[in-house]
C-alpha cells in the first residue's frame, strides 16, 4: 500500500505519538520506521462540546499530535517531521466506554457489552509541516452472550485493563467476539488501510 511513496518516506522522521505496543506493532507491519513518543496531552476534553463522536475522537488525537510535534520539531534532528496520533473509543448507544478504572469497572463494561453490538471509533491525525490530515474510522463489534464466570475470568487475565471498552480483539478477548463489521485494525487502534491511503495522499498532494 505504501509502495508509491516508499522512496520518500526515508527522508522524513516519522513519529508515532503513542506508547501503545499494539499501535507500534501495527506501524511496523506497514514497514514504517517510526519512533515511539507518548504524548503528554491531557485527554480531558468535554464530550458535550462536540457534535459527534468522530469530532470528539479526532480532537483528542489532534491534541496528542500537536503536543508531540511542537516538542520534537526543533530538537535538532534536521529531517522533516510527520507525527501520527490516534485515539480509540468504544460506544454503546450514546454511552462512551473508555479504559476501565479498575477490574470492577471492566466487569461493569463487559456485562453491558455482552450480547450487544458496540461501535468502535478510531480517530487518526497526521501532523506535518504544511498542516494536518485527520479522519475517523469505525467498526461494529458483536459480542457473544457472556456468563458472569466468563467475564470475570477474562478480567482476571489482566488483558482488558488497559483497553478502551475493556476488551482487545488480538488476544484472549477475541474469543468473546463472533463478528466484526469493518476494519479489524480499527478495533485494534489503527486502521491500516485508511492510514496507508491518507499517507499516500499526504505525500502526493500536501508535501
UniProtKB/TrEMBL annotation:
The keyword Transmembrane helix does not apply. Keywords: Hydrolase. Transmembrane segments: none annotated. Its cofactor is a divalent metal cation. SUPFAM superfamilies: ITPase-like. Gene3D superfamilies: 3.90.950.10. It holds the Pfam family Maf. It comes from the Eukaryota. InterPro entries: ITPase-like_fam, Maf-like. NCBIfam families: maf (TIGR00172). HAMAP family: Maf (MF_00528). This is Septum formation protein Maf isoform X1. It comes from Drosophila arizonae (Fruit fly). The gene is LOC108611109.
Amino acid at each position: 500500500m505504501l509502495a508509491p511513496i516508499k522512496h520518500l518516506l526515508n527522508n522524513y522522521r516519522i513519529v508515532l505519538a503513542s506508547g501503545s505496543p499494539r499501535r507500534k506493532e501495527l506501524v511496523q507491519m506497514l514497514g514504517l520506521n517510526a519512533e515511539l513518543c507518548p504524548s503528554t496531552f491531557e485527554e480531558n476534553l468535554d464530550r458535550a462540546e462536540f457534535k459527534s463522536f468522530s469530532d470528539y475522537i479526532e480532537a483528542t488525537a489532534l491534541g496528542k499530535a500537536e503536543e508531540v510535534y511542537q516538542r520534537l520539531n526543533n530538537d535538532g534532528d534536521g529531517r522533516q517531521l510527520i507525527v501520527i496520533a490516534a485515539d480509540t473509543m468504544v460506544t454503546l448507544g450514546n454511552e462512551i466506554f473508555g479504559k476501565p478504572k479498575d477490574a470492577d469497572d471492566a466487569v461493569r463494561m463487559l456485562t453491558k457489552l455482552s450480547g450487544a453490538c458496540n461501535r468502535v471509533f478510531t480517530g487518526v491525525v497526521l501532523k506535518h509541516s504544511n498542516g494536518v490530515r485527520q479522519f475517523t474510522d469505525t467498526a461494529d463489534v458483536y459480542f457473544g452472550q457472556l456468563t458472569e464466570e466468563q467475564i470475570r475470568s477474562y478480567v482476571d487475565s489482566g488483558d482488558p485493563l488497559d483497553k478502551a471498552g475493556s476488551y482487545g480483539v488480538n488476544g484472549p478477548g477475541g474469543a468473546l467476539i463472533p463478528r466484526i463489521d469493518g476494519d479489524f485494525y480499527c478495533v485494534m487502534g489503527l486502521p491500516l488501510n485508511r492510514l496507508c491511503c491518507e499517507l499516500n495522499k499526504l505525500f502526493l498532494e500536501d508535501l
